[in-house]
Each structure stands twice: as C-alpha cells, then as structure tokens.
Hints:
Helix content: 40-55%
Order of helices and strands: HHHHHHHHHHHEEEHEHEHHH
Shape: elongated
Structural class: alpha/beta
CATH architecture of the largest domain: 2-Layer Sandwich
CATH superfamily of the largest domain: Ribonuclease H-like superfamily/Ribonuclease H
CATH topology of the largest domain: Nucleotidyltransferase, domain 5
Number of strands: 5
Number of domains: 3
Strand content: 5-15%
Number of helices: 16
Distance between the termini: 65 Å
Amino acid sequence: xxxxxxxxxxRRVIEDMLNAKMPVSxxxxxxxxxxxxxxxxxxxxxxxxxxxxYLNGYYGMVAQKAARDRRARRRxxxxxxxxxxxxxxxxxxxxSPEQIAGRLQFEGRRPRVSHETIYTYVFGPDGQTAELxxxxxxxxKKRQPRYARRPRGLVFPPDRSIHQRPDHVKTRETFxxxxxxxxxxxxxxxxxxxxxxxxxxxxxxxxxxxxxxxxTHLMNRLMTVMxxxxxxxxxxxxxxxxxxxxNWRKLEPGIGTEVWFCDPQAPWQKGSVENLNKRARRYLPRxxxxxxxxxxxxxxxxxxxxGTPRKCLGWRTxxxxxxxxMMKLR
Length: 330
C-alpha cells in the first residue's frame, strides 16, 4: 500500500479526539492509521511557544500548515529551476550534497538549500529519472535513512556468537558464567524495567530495577552490580540480540567479563535466564509499578528465588550453591 500523508480532515479528527482525552491507539484505529504514524504526527506538528505556554497543543489547521510548509521546502529544487541547474552542475563536478549546500550558504546565494533537500531530490522521481545518484561520491542507488539502525552484524559480530562460546560454559562446568535479559512491563510503567541475571552453574539470580532502557544506562548499572564480585565469579555473560545490549563492549574492559550472543530470534539458547524470568513473574507481573519498587523489595524477591531448593542442584538452594563456589575462590 502506497504511503499517503495525513490530510486536513484527519488532522482535525486528531485534534478533536485529543481534546476529548482519547488515547492515541484509539485515534489510530479511528483513522485507519498505525499508531506510530499518529504519534509521529502529533510530535512533529504540535504547536509550542515558550512565551505562550497556555496555547501549546495540537491544532489541525496549524499542523496542516506546518506539513504544507515542509513539503514546499522539500520541493525547492523543483520550484527554482536556476537553483536546480546549479546544484546538478556541481554534482557533475563531483561535489557532495553537503559541499554544495555549504558553498551556497558561504556565497550567500538565495534561495538556500540543505544537503537533506538535495538528497531527497536525487532519490526522488525526478532525480532517479535523471540518474543523479551516479554522480554522488558514494554512488549509492538508494539512500539510508538518517537515523537508520546500525547493521546488527557489526553490533553483534560473528566471533561473539554463542557457537564460539567455550564448551565448558555450555556444560556448566565452570562458575562465573552468567546469562542476562530484561523483563519488560506494560506501557503505563514507562521505560522502567528489571534486568535479570542468573549464574548458570548455581542458578543464583540477581534482579535489579532499571529506570531507562538505553543501552548506556543498562550497561553502567550492570557493571555497578557485578563489579563487587571477584573476577572468577564474573567470567562471562550471554545475552540475546536486543538493542539494549549493543554497548556490550564496555563490559570486557570495564569488569573483565566476556560477552556472548544468542542467534537472532533464539531466546531459548539462554534458557536459564528465560526460566528465571518465568519464575520471577509470580512476584513481578506485567502490571507491576516498577518505579515504585525499592531496593528492599528487589532483595526480598531475589531472596525468595534463591532460597528455594532446586532439583537440578540436588535440592540445595541457589544461595547455598553460590556460597560454596565463592568459598572455593578464597
């Protein structure tokens, strides 16, 4: 289905339903649009004025004008033939769109044009007909979005695959091999979540509240939690390929812990932490107000999980098994 921009009727519906305090999900259903499109529309075209804060909000007519003005800017190279000729001439000389836009600004030429507008034209219908992309320094046939995700192959390289993980980790022969994951909660809880860790040999569980899903915040919190352990008690950790783990490289120099990753869409390869999450849900259902959980609450839940005898440990508790392994390190 071809992409179509919202029209004035749809924008007025959004305004009316927002004024009626309707959730964005219901607005999206009413319009037959994806909720992400509606969220993006409200964020992009919301009126905001620091001097008149009481007027801030979403207005259909204001949003329509803002969208129309943006489209006009994008069509600048169609509306101004002389500007278009100058841009194309410089492209044929091997200049990049950024160099062309910068030079026009330096010379004080009017109208100006941004490098984003040039790229939009190059990869639009008129630019593709004229085969302008072949004049770009990179000679791409298609342009990657400005905020495109990084290729997962670079974030999670092959040499960090679970298939390269030493066999002694798989067989649970050695102590200090961990698995990690995030427990996610209902949207109403915001970005708050709980990180779950389990030591593979002893099944010892560690849960800690995490108020931000950003990878930097998570990795910093994880290092803070694991750093008090002696080095042999934090040899490695295995994650899935969630984007919240993409800053994994901080762990090896930070706390000396090796990192391994499951195959894509294969969470069962870290079965210990998946099992932990399932058991922890008894105390942490998806509607839990995570931000209200205190450190004492989290310790109490961990104590219950680690104080329960496990058949796989010969009916010892994870706490007992973990202490035995820690004693061996002294």
